[in-house]
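SEQUENCE WITH STRUCTURE:
===
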Amino acid sequence: MNKITLASLILLSSVIHTSHAAQDKPYHHESQVDYITSSEDFSDGKWGLQYRYFQQAVNQETVPYALSKFLAQTSNIGGEYIGFDGSDKQYNLDGTYVFDSKWFIGLGYQKTDFNDANNLKLMNRYNTVGTDSKTYRVTGGYYLNKTSEVYLSYQYNDGKEDNSLYNADTTGHYYGLGLRTLVPMTVTEGIYIDANYQYADTELQYNGTYTGKTTQNSNNFNLKADWYFTRSWSVGGYYHTDDNNSDNDDYGVGTAYFLRLNDVLSARINIIKQFEPDLDGVYGNLSVNARF
């Protein structure tokens, strides 16, 4: 069964009406299969698999489905694998421990290995760092209330870049401050806001024909906002700016839908259109989600 057939089944499942209404039971486990692709080359999508365990049962009965994990404010651990044609791949593993005082601490590890420039461009829509790298993260924060958190983060990246212009070893230290919140609204479910500032201190050690070292400091700001009109449907946008390269500011808009199929399974679709830098077509995730 090829990629087009499998992806078509995911799409088909999103329009099939189940014989009974799904019951939004609390869950401890969540797994998901993703098909990551673009409208310009739909058949050349990438497959992902993720799983997460939550210490306390996660309520999804009264909140937006996509935000139930964030609003649960409970300890959790999970991982993700994304596979590609050839050798390109990505691994993620992370966990968060929540104290009774509502302080929390999280640790994360990510490994990426990209040789195909098209794969790297696709995954840049999903917070990938580097072409061949290992990334270690630590996060600490506090839940301000039932729908908001503030956090500090540190990230260390060690990798390699090998392209037509140069070969280099890369290291980076990233210091961040962020806020995530769901702002309740009377008519709709509310507006979810994810805003963070990051200071980056990076170094490239060139190898091969050209040798030398360059260092760079930059200030980065990221803003993402999603308006949840219903518990299933949201429309939003994102913006990223880097004071070292204002020509490469990113911004775009997107929409997402979370369709409950039965008590366990759901179909999800997330579509993003990037305007700057201008890319043809749209990017998206087609997913089958299981919560139990």
